[in-house]
């Protein structure tokens, strides 16, 4: 990667992170999940009193190469369907172990305060949980206008939506973002 491209990417990330708007709030509305029994014995995600709770039992360790595809979608007023506004694929193990800040890493770090997640890969077989997590006001960005959102989060191994793609877990979370 050229130095100029690297500098532009770093500048874009800085501007993205600098656009945090502190007075925003996120209300969790609903959640849904599906999981691959090859990787999980159990996985549940629930919303109660605007807090997220998760319980999972890993059947296999989570190892390097574990990736996530985020798709943040917005439903415009009077629209029936959601439209994608932001989509990104990240290597989960690399993103949690790196020292650089990112939106994904800030969410993950905050979630670990409410559960027993492993912070580094490999994550061993066992029971993991997160209780009473609320998305803080500093975890939203200005580019997201107030409205109704759906986050689709797909965890997988391989290359996204190719022959090597192996889905492990899919989460769908509906929220309302307000000022």
UniProtKB/TrEMBL annotation:
InterPro entries for the chain: DUF1091 (IPR010512), GM2-AP_sf (IPR036846)
Keywords, alphabetical: Signal
Signal sequence region: 1-22
Membrane-spanning ranges: none
Pfam assignment, any one: DUF1091
Domain of life: Eukaryota
Signal as UniProt keyword: yes
Coiled-coil region list: none
Protein name, as recorded: MD-2-related lipid-recognition domain-containing protein
Source species: Drosophila guanche (Fruit fly)
């Amino acid at each position: 990667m050229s130095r100029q491209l690297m500098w532009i990417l770093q500048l874009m990330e800085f501007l993205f992170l600098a656009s945090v708007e502190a007075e925003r709030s996120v209300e969790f509305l609903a959640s849904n999940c599906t999981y691959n029994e090859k990787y999980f014995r159990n996985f549940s995600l629930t919303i109660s009193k605007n807090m997220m709770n998760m319980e999972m039992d890993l059947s296999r360790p989570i190892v390097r190469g574990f990736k996530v595809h985020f798709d943040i979608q917005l439903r415009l007023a009077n629209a029936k369907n959601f439209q994608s506004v932001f989509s990104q694929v990240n290597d989960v193990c690399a993103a949690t172990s790196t020292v650089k800040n990112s939106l994904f890493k800030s969410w993950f770090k905050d979630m670990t305060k409410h559960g027993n997640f492993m912070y580094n890969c490999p994550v061993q077989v066992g029971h993991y949980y997160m209780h009473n997590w609320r998305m803080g006001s500093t975890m939203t960005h200005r580019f997201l206008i107030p409205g109704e959102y759906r986050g689709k989060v797909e965890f997988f191994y391989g290359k996204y939506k190719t022959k090597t793609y192996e889905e492990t877990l899919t989460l769908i979370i509906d929220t309302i973002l307000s000022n």
